[in-house]
Predict the 3D structure of the following.
Amino acid sequence: MPALLVVLLAALAALPYFAPYFYIFVATEILIMGLFAASFNLIFGYTGMLSFGHAAFFGMGAYACALLLLHFEVSLLTAILGAMLASTLLAAAIGFLSVRLGEVYFAMLTLAFGMMVYAVAHQWRSLTNGSDGITGFRLTEFGLGLDLQLFNPAVYYHVVLVVVVLASLVLYLITRSSFGLMLRAISENPERVAFCGVNERRHRLVAFIIAGLFAGLAGALFAPFNRVASPDMVHWTQSAEPVLMTILGGAGYFLGPFFGAAMFVLLETWITSFTEHWMLLLGIALALLVMFFRRGVLGTLLDKVTGR
Amino acid sequence: MQSFIAALLNSLDIAMLLFVIAVGLNIIFGVLNVINFAHGGLYMLGAYFTYMLVGRLGLPFWPALLLAPLAVAAVAVVLERLVLRRVYDRHVTDSLLLTFALLLIIDESVRMIWGSGIHVVRPPDLLRGNVSFLGVNYPVYSLFVILMGAAMLLALWALFTRTRLGRIVRAAAIDRDMAQTVGINVPLVITGVFAFGAWMAAVGGVIAAPMRAIDPGMGDKIIIESFIVVVIGGLGSFPGTLLGALVLGFIHGFGGRYLPEINLVLPYIGMALVLLWRPQGLMGRGAAA
């Protein structure tokens, strides 16, 4: 397994040298969406909380990054760090209100507060430029004194690859830490965890905030990639994407969401070339996966291999 | 003073429409223990079916009020039997995921069949025009919405407290296994309740059709509003739904008039305040689900 991962990473690093130009964009999007989905899975797969509003933090990251680049002309690294801070604060506020009750409430509240962020992005025209979104920001330098030509898609792809790999490593270590084990215990049996004297609500909140932080990072990488931060990135249909990616790949494995994101983005690229009703297929796929294929593609494959 | 009365009357018709829709959501939750994310989609189907019957086939409004909700209830029976039924014995997350998938499917199907444009349904002749009420001009149609809401409120209250059927549904809501043991056909009750909730959503959709724009975004808008209603009032509480609908109605009626710059976020602020003060909702029971 680790050997396979090293080969995969090497192939990803070398991708701009052998793949057609178009696939550099596809691969960049897969990496960003994979991180977005993996951050969602920290609360869904590991903690057992189903959020339908995760795009709020993704969008917050995208907007904060775009605004910092536009108005303050900071380096990309500074903009990303600022965006992560903004998403973290938003996640703390929404999380504080949403994790106190059971999961039916949680699903409802995350969707509702997510749409609140959407309403703000849409209405606060003087800041967010309404439905047009924020455009025209420039990528000058990366920061840390590195001389990178960020406008070159291959260079930006490599930046994204390094950031996503580092962030995923941190996320992975979190899931393997004692805190991560506690989250899994909470998803198995919250009453027993609470009975053991653990403040399970605080654990949930911290997990939610960490997930928001990494979703914000994904959003901050996405805005310069797309050259725009728009309200679509905060809409609930954007929140549906990490849900489907995670279910598609498999919520039970750390790499499941990345795998799901790859399949999702490739399918989307292919299918939207001949129909605009991609969302309908997305809904049908989600329903079928939940009904008949709950462990996802990677989950089912690995179950076969490990004999579970 | 007149502006105040106008805002008050405005709040009331919004509140009654919200009540009709949110109470269906709440009844489904009571028995299935699931929040139906596709509820707004079913409301939207009610409005689009009305558009088809009245706008395209040229039927009068009244038969549409009868037919469109029945058609939506039939759709709901199929969805419950074919889709939701399969995951009741699993964790509640799977049911939530499925209703969310239905939301995506209904939303995009509506876009595919009827396009992204806005459709309009004319109100029936009887309900056109304005009446003068305490010096305020008030649309007759809004008066009709308030009366319909009040009638449904009374009918529901009578149904659940005064009839055998109501007691059966309440029994199934309180303890499914026990209800099954004493001879209640619980799977049938579940299908019936889901269809009934969908019927209520569609009645809301028919009522809304002549006064609101019919477009593919109307379902999203109403489901968020219904969530806010049940969170404010308390999930699972019947009087709470009425109270929540009134609170949100007032927020819209008065907020739109006096605080137009922030009226879009006011409902969320109201919801956040209730969550801080009484997380289980104004009328919710202590240990919430």
